[in-house]
Structures
1.
Amino acid sequence: MNLEVVKLAAADNQWGAIFPELMLACLALALLGLEIVLPKKLHVYIPDFALSGLVGTLAGLLFNFRPATLGHDTFNGLLHHSEPGQVMRAFFLLVAILVCVLARVSLAKQKMPRIEFYHLVLIVTGAMMLLAQSNHFVMLFVALETVTIGFYILVSYFRTSTASLEAGLKYLVMGALSSGMLLFGIALLYGVAGNPDLPAHTASAMNFNALAQFLAANPHHFLASTGIVLVLAGVAFKIGAFPFQIWVPDVYQGAPTPVTAFLAVGSKAAGFAVLLILARDVFASYAWLVMPVLTAMAAATIVFGNLAALTQHNVKRLIGLSGVSHAGFLLLGVVASATVPMAQGAIYFYLFAYLIASFAVFGVMTHVAGANDSDQDLDHYAGLAKESPFLAAVLAIGLGSLAGIPPLAGFMGKLFIFISAFQGGARWLLALAAAGVVISIYYYFGWIKAAFFEQWTPPADTADPRPARTPVSFVSGLTLGSLALASVLLGFYQGPLGQWLTMK
Amino acid sequence: MSQLPFDPLLLSIAAPLALALAIALGLPKRWSVLLAYGAFAIPVLMALHVWFHFGDVAKDHGYAFLTRYSTGLDGLGIGLKLGLNGISLPLFVLAALVGLAAGLYAIQSGAERLKIYLMLLLIMQGGLMGVFASVDVFFFYFFHELALIPTFIMVGVWGGRDRSYAAMKLTIYLTLGAMVSLLGLIMLYVKSGAQTFDLIALRDHLAAHPLGATLQHNIAGLLLFGLGVLVSLWPLHTWAPLGYGAAPSSAAMLHAGVLKKFGLYGLIQIALPLLPDGLAHWSHPLAWLAVIGNILIVGLITIAQRDLKQMIGYSSVMHMGYAFLGIAAGGIIGPGGVVLLMVAHGLSVALLFLLATAIYHRTQTFAMDEMGGLAQKTPVLAAFFVAATLASIGLPGFANFWGELAIFVALWKFSPLITALAVAGVVISAVYGLRSAARVFFGPSTEALAKVTAARPPADLGWPEKIPALILLAALLFVGFWPKSLTGPINAALTPAAAAPARVVPSAPSL
């Protein structure tokens, strides 16, 4: 490759197109710089700096929501900027902001270095944003690995806790396995698509457009099918779909609560953003293979997630396994999206509703948790409604929305998915999903029951086993209050968001 | 003046909800209670206004007071469309009246954490007004769930014996019912091809392109199962007595009196005009389930009850059997009788729950074996209870009589055998109704009761308790003596609905 080609390639690099990601990277480095430069007593303001930087980036992104590059490829086809991509970018920034708010509460209970945590959150967020816009397997893999490696550290961040370290190790081993499968799948696809004996073979088989053309010309190739299944398996690890959900309960329990929230919402949404691109566009001509695989996966995921969550007593495991069932509902939407245009909008709405509800619940969890972050039992919630009505109300709204109870946002998400699934003809899957919703009521309401209905009588002989509750500060109160309110309002009135979703 | 400067239907939904939001945002208790009187009274004023003017306002497809508000889902054919026809009008009035009675009773009860209790009750009230004012099937379901959620919390927090278990059971059963009926509604939405949840548009569309017979059977089956659970159709009724037994009085009044009618209302308003063959297909199994299960089996179980509140709970399950029979019988007079019975039963069961709690406050127990002779000490309470019992048995002069009579008349054409069995049920309800009145109020006083009354002599009904009871009793008598005030609109609404949609199969076979 001579210099001219490199120059030509460089001319396509439009750095302005990834301005938000660059902002995050600079912000992340600035945090480390500030830690060195600032005197120790000013370090408490660094998280605020990160938070305001994130809010600023989100505001900038929303202000310039339709940049000139929208609808185009940049960086020689590494990235494709689309409207869903913009929506996911805003989604991940919102997730990062909420993770930072939660981290302020949670990290205050530990003797840990703080700044690196925010640094990693920023890096991982930037990588997720790139992931949602990737148009090339190299981009996809690099971004995915950045996310995963960031999470290895974040999951085991509470290094004095054995549970956190164990979770980190489990995530490392399982993550490596899934990366291996993904990479093997990519290699197979690349190899097959580069085979000069086949029609429409291409030298740039990593590029999604070229690969899609090749797959359309060879709709029943065995090696390509194997590659596709392996790639799907790699993505299924990220979203925690059956049978790749085994890491979920342990990792969710061991990880610090803000990281659990980040995994549950951010990582899962990133997985679905990738899955939507792959299943709908790249592997479109292999729908005969992809859709049955995803259908079976969705059915098993819904059943497994709901049944496994039934018996949990640790709330982190409970919400982890209930998150598995949510992945199943979202997969139902992905299956429907093959034929129903509205399904894609339904998935985005579901993700936003899930974000709002999950962070409300996780926010309450950070306040109820004690110094031992992995030990959060349902019993710790006894008497919450009496002692802290605000937290209890936020918890009830969050869990209600997760359970999909009208008039909360989660119900609208489920309704959109159900309607599109019915239109897509996935009847039996829909019946299964409805059964899953009924089952999920049991464990979500068990949690609400623990917080509201149970009278707490402190044991006479031993100390109160419930950890002391953190008082709600202004920032976290405001955040939790607006999340709860958003859950209610989005259920009643979808407004322009609803119009955007249903016009597709 | 029949024209108000605002939308009376939207106001009666919004007023309770707005106050609930204000309480959630931290309105002080004194103001909450004071404003709650207004928030419960506004729906009644609006309901009386629309009832009074219903005859003379312009109507579209039988719907008066039509308005539509966009919520951003027009692409899916969902919008908040409000209006009343002859079927929803009586229930709209019922919801407002029972809501006022329940609200007044809650305010005087001085429950623990009264503010939150009132907030939940207001949400329920707003949802109920919405259920019957919605012309959009989606919002009809949505408001039902909105009203349902506070029930779970109220049973769980303020409930009596077994409240935790009762709340859980109630939640799971009712979610199951709601989920299955949601599937039915989605199926109807997608398969109708009309791309809208608007009931009027759906009706027009399906009148022009009726659904195939199999499809109608399937959708009607889903709706009957789902809504059947919500209305406590035997054998999925077990949540009802347990839940009502545990629920605090105002929640039981609103749920048993009004919210439970949602399922029947859905069948009459949605399934009957849109899926006539579907309902006709299931009418025989439905009628047999209702008469053997709800009326005879549950009726005998009701006789055996010792707990006053559970007895009322079982009796309400039993009366739902008559409503199902009316729907199965079909025609105009059957469903019309059901609407009338729904109103009558809603008023009488709410009154019974209210009085049961009033009795509890005087005897400290719901066990009927431990009462007796209360009539000497509390004659007014006794008079109210006997009147409510007679109403619920279906004595002429009360609204219930007309509802049951119309259903029996329609049922005779459907199946004389089932009619005979159903009439036998009336005897059962007379047995448990009169027996309960006798055990509580007449005969010698028991030792347990003597102990309680010696410690705290029971006072008769005071005005704070009497006013809500009087509202309900007056409405029962008003409809009982002047049923035409409701049957006029009901007839007008059912006549075109039963005649217009084209049938795929000729009418259902009869025995």
Note: Residues 292 and 346 of chain A are 20 Å apart (CA to CA).
2.
Amino acid sequence: MKNFSEKIIFEKANDWIENNQKVALATVIQTWGSSPLEVGSRMIINENGNFLGSVSGGCVESKVIEECISLIKNNKISQIIDFKVSNENAWEVGLACGGDISIYIEQITQ
Amino acid sequence: MKIKTLQEILKYKSLKKEFAILTDLKNGDSEIFIPNKIIKGEFSKYLDEIEIIYKSNKNGILENDKIFIQTCKNPIKVIIVGAVHIAEYLIDYAKSLNFEIIIIDPRGFFTSKEKFPDTKIINKWPNEAFNEIETNSKTALIALTHDPKIDDPALQYALKNKFFYIGALGSKKTHEKRCLRLIEAGFKNEEIKLINGPVGIKLGGKSPSEIALSIVAQLVSEKYKN
């Protein structure tokens, strides 16, 4: 049971694609400890950096958007990004809540 | 994910069909899972585990560390009896909380399309209206007219069909009288106790939007009780 209607996210992704924009989808696939959003939370990002939805409480979104744009630019299919308090991302975009999350990003392709 | 899969998701969502999205985290493949429908390739090897996760309404990675499943079940249906002012705010809140709202009100002048855009309104008496609505133990009822002629049949229907949340607007006195009428109608005390009356959690507010907030807060807390 999602709090934010998933339908809106997928509809927006479809709109962007119909307007010839490249789109990536980010999904929370695993969480440990007190992570802000539950598994299955989603965000979509287009090549211009516009986004809808969320994968954390604002803690890691900027990094996820950056990774999605480079995924689109390099024309890669998918990638997993882990955010942990203890890793090198911590000082930059670490989770203030102390939880760890794993996010799967993928391009929506023909 | 392929555009084809995205469009399939949108199709099932608009048909209000329940399904799951399967993603192969290693190679990026995705596929839609629907119970009793054959799935292809790699995913079919894990069908048993997929079905268990799907049935428990969960999202997560399978034990093989390779496949992610996201279940997409229909939102909880909330039936509001009475297209009154509070209902307008309930609809506002429900939108962001992902509830599906249906309004029943036999009184024509209340149910203008302007006040309730994009909301299903059934302009009939509850007993007739329920013939048009599919309900189950995941359905909720909020009775707002505090007119026994309209509220009581709806409350009786919700009790008989074991709705997971039943709320009825009205003061303590109004609710006591309501309970007596339900006892006369043959309902047991344990059943009647399932009605949240006076409806909502105590916030202290009295305005229609504040009452709507207190009702919706109670509804959400009941949703997570089980």
Note: Chain A has one domain: 6-107.
3.
Amino acid sequence: MRSHDSLRAYWRANVRLIAVLLSVWFLTAYIISIVLAPWLNQFRLGNAPLGFWFAQQGSIYVFILLIWVYARRMDALDRQYDVHE
Amino acid sequence: MSVEVWTYLIVGLSFALYFYIGYTSRVRDTKGFYVAGRGVPPVANGAATAADWMSAASFISMAGLISTLGYDGAIYLMGWTGGYVLLALLLAPYLRKYRKFTVPDFVGDRYASNTARTLAAIATIFISLVYVAGQMRGVGIVFSRFLAIDIAQGVLIGVAVVAFFAILGGMKGVTWTQAAQYAVLILAYLIPGVALAYLLTGNPIPQLAFALSDISERINQIQTDLGFGEYTAPFQSKPMLDVLAITGALMVGTAGLPHVIIRFYTTPDVRSARYSAFWALVFIGLLYTTAPALAMFARYNLISTLHNKPIEQVRQIDWVAKWEQTGLLKIADKNGDGVVQVAKGKAFQEKGGKPDFNAPDMTNPNEVYLDNDIIVLSTPEVARLAPFVIALLAAGGLAAALSTASGLLIAMSSAVAHDLYYRVFNPRAPERLRLLVGRLAMLPALAAAAYLGINPPGFVAQVVAFAFGLAASGLFPAILLGIFDRRMNAQGAIAGMLVGLGFTSVMIGLMRAPQLFGAAQPVIKDFFGVSAEGIGIVGMALNLVTALVVSRLTPPPPTHIQAIVDSIRVPRGAGEALDE
């Protein structure tokens, strides 16, 4: 049976997961792809400067991955706390 | 067969497909009309969302914009994809669980306030109207460029097509045609993209060629020689702070756009809403990772084809001759040496925001004008592809414009018919009347779209910043707090919305005074270094702070409202019938 406490725990776990994933989102988009881009451009991925590559390619791949991880982890959390459909 | 015959054939076939899908998915109830009966599987909904999101501008102009901005083009690439992370983690699953039809539904119910509902409905209508004008314009331009049909006629054809499947099928018709339109537009984008990548680098996959080929080194070299900054170097056109702000405003704005949010109402359950967001970004990412490759390759190719070549020789190239005729490309031999020079600066003087081809700008040595649209539109010819690819590109541009326009029409008509008419003015309206009003509300929206498409206000590009700014500073925080802050009450949310929307509108008005009000000068240039495009993120922060402070100084929301918050946080029960 879903108790009040278990629903609170489910929500806390969800918020924790969101916080972790959004930190990665923030780091990728704003720190790596923008703030550190000039410095990262001294390194190369293949032939492309790394900061530039992150800003125009890598960040998008990370965004896709983040949503996938969230959907997968939430499947597990939904079942664990018995709140799935 | 000639390009024109191919174009009639392929555009005609694609329209026939949309008509067929629209007809087979016609609906008889409001649930079908507003949320497609909630029966759309995640992959299909992802494709529909991608087509809904990617507009005529994404398809035709974005690569060109990036190619002039170089690294700084990342503001659009990240700004228009990163918002999906916010949508998937912070909004979509909970709004889906709420089981209502629209964004103002949630805002109005959660804060038990028709003021909040009306504010949200007006913001929805305004944002969508701004957006739809650009789409209809895109339709007209594609028709006029590829089929020599007058822009006004092109717009009317576009409106008629959208009207057919949107009025008949509502959200259901729109969803399934959007999914088909995604297939058309992505094919039309990838074929020339792959061909150009292969031609210039020998690697057919644009994303790999982007990283592995030496084009980035070569274009940096050329740009440095010609006096441009390096293509890959950050902050050539905008300072870092503004790049941060614009990226943030576009991300948050994306997550707050009503026509995007309502796409997640159509899935069968909360879990599918999450996977829909994943598929949507996969499908969007396919185009958004191809665009910067296309941008860089095409710019390299254009400069190296044109620069330091005799003008007579250049004008013998088929696509140069063709696009010079249409005004997408113009060469002016300013120094009379018979050789083309590419350099920094504008080739022609500007008149009313457009280059005046009779008046070369003699203050700089640049002799070539390139319209942003040429990067995508010229690719099939530059890559020497068969005529049917050019025709496919026309169908793709139309698919991008029509799919976005239809999503916007649904958002607008639901704000009028469902939120304002049914929820505010006539809550007793029976189901059949509500459906009828929903269909009728499409007509003024279609008329407005047609009018704005044929007579575009000169400031369309300027007001798009407005749309994102309002979505970011008004709708996004109100929804976010409604889900994540149980203590948030109507006073806080309304105060926050008013401060956020007010601040953002005033700032954009001041910074864009010349375009919006015909002033000679902007009243202020920027807000501590943040431009009009990025100001929405500041407005959002002000909204959040105001809402939190005001809500803590006023009584907590009543228990039945807190119960709504508890219920939307739990996925189970999203599929249950709800009679409203």
Note: The mean pLDDT of chain B is 92.
